[in-house]
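User: Here's a chain of 324 residues. Predict its fold as tokens.
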Amino acid sequence: MSNRPSEFQLIAELFAPLAEAPGALKLTDDAALIAPPAGHELVITTDALVEGVHFLADDPPLLIAKKALRVNLSDLAAKGAEAAGYLLALSLPAGIDMSWLKQFAEGLKQDQREFGISLYGGDTTSTPGPLTIAITAFGFVPKGKMIRRANAKPDDLVFVSGTIGDGGAGLALSREQHDVSHAVRDFLVHRYREPRPRLALGLALRGIANAALDVSDGLLADLGHIAETSGVRIEIDAHRLPLSAALQAVWGTTNEARVRAATSGDDYEIAFTVAPRFTADAVKAARNSTAITEIGRVRAGQGVALLDDQGREIPVPAKGFTHF
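Assistant: Prediction complete.
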């Protein structure tokens, strides 16, 4: 028999305390109230995470909660939105007990404090399938200021925040044994389990970046979305990709390693394009948030290509994670 209270007990004990915004109504109604500030628009995003696909069954529940929330905040960051709140839908298999749920709720509580957001509502249900967590997050941007995918232009420069490949390497280390130091393993697994949404950078890029998105399925795959919606070609220099020292210790710095880093996914960094005249503004905007690296350029044409240091295209069998 499941060591789990009823749905309404779960809401009252674990989730109502997280509904801190007045519009959440302490989760006592069927819906919530959201009023954008004057002169702003509502930005909405949603992601569903499934056990065995987006996280591992033995990942700590506190970190599963944080990842589920942060991957959504990462989408808001790439749009230049100020995060405000979220909805949570949980489909729980029989093995999830109250102890697990308390740790999960604690993860949400910690991130609400860190990012200044509130739970506004959601749903809980049981499932015979794997644990599934669906979060819909929302935030606000001044009217007309959301950074879209579709505005990249030929001659734009391409940048990415932070380092790439760490999430993919962390997942690999979580699944398999590798002869690496504890420090390297801990760093990379942490990057996989607890991504860092670049909210401050996203806000700073409003009015500077022409196009942006967060890197979830792989840098090349996601830049391919910008290329497609903008009707352009994006060329990335493999030797300019920012790789952490920990990643280099595991995968090295060969072209093969760089292909793997650019296609592995789970980075949740922001990739964006900037007109050359705004390069200095982009660097200045990032100064108080996170490092950014210029990695390529936008051309007329279509698709996305990874180039070696001689300007030759490197064959890439798969540009990133596909959901189907």
